[in-house]
Amino acid sequence: QWRAALQLMSEMAQDEVRKDTITYNAAISACEKAGQWLPALELLREMLDQRAHVDSITCNACITACERGHRWQLALQLFDDMAATRIQQDTVSYNSSITACSSSNRWAAALTLLSEMGVRRIQKTSTTFNAAIGACGKGGQWLLALRLLDE
Q1: 119-127 contacts, C-beta under 8 A, 24 or more apart
Q2: Phi/psi of residue 98, nearest 5 degrees
Q3: Cα(1)–Cα(80) distance, rounded to whole angstroms?
Q4: What's the pLDDT tens digit per position in 84-136?
Q5: DSSP states of 54-106 as a string?
Q6: Which one, 44, 71, 113, 142, has the greatest CB density within 10 A?
Q7: What are the contacts of 52-55 at 24+ separation with CB within 8 A?
Q8: What are phi and psi of 22, to 5 degrees?
Q9: What's the whole-model pTM score?
Q10: Closest alpha carbon to 42 in 85, 83, 5
Q11: How far is the C-alpha of 29 from the C-alpha of 25, rounded, in Å?
Q12: Residue 121 in 3-state DSSP?
């Protein structure tokens, strides 16, 4: 589906049809679901070049695409860029970033993000804890993982 979404975006450009945030987000989400991080980021760059409105949906989809594409550094950079550009980081943003940390054995970074959620009063979900516990487990931090189970 991601290829079809990119093809549609290309046809829109050829036909001089204006692309908006919703159009871009749909195409980026198609890339995200397939773990196609590079096309997702190319669409994000195009959005910025076209001065389209980038929102948390855009960023969250790009973060998840990077996570699924095993590009944890890019995922965390996008997460940080959200704050720098005043885009609201929400539960999905944190969950995707913590999952990226888990996938790359970055348990300390995952726990930092988890702690930050508490400080910022962002709702933690079972997905949040599963990702953090997974990060601790992959990093051999079993006692920390067990503590998280108590929360």
Answers
A1: 120/89, 122/89, 122/90, 122/91, 122/94, 123/91, 124/91, 124/151, 125/91, 125/95, 127/95, 127/99
A2: -65, -40
A3: 29
A4: 999 999 999 999 999 999 988 899 999 999 999 999 999 999 999 999 999 99
A5: P-HHHHHHHHHHHHHTT-HHHHHHHHHHHHHTTPPP-HHHHHHHHHHHHHTT-
A6: 113
A7: 52/19, 52/20, 52/21, 52/24, 53/20, 53/21, 54/21, 54/85, 54/87, 55/21, 55/25, 55/87
A8: -65, -45
A9: 0.92
A10: 5
A11: 6
A12: coil
Q: How far apart are the first and last CA of the chain?
A: 39
Rg for the chain (alpha carbons), in Å?
Answer: 17
For residues 32, 33, 39, 40, the Cα torsion angle rounded to the nearest 10 degrees is -20
Handedness of CA 9, 14, 17, 20 (dihedral sign): positive
Q: Which residues contact 68 (CB under 8 A, 6 or more apart)?
A: 32, 34, 35, 37
Distance CA 126, CA 119 (A): 18
Q: What is the pLDDT of residues 83-94, one digit of tens each?
A: 999 999 999 999
Tell me the two tokens of residue 131. 């990702």
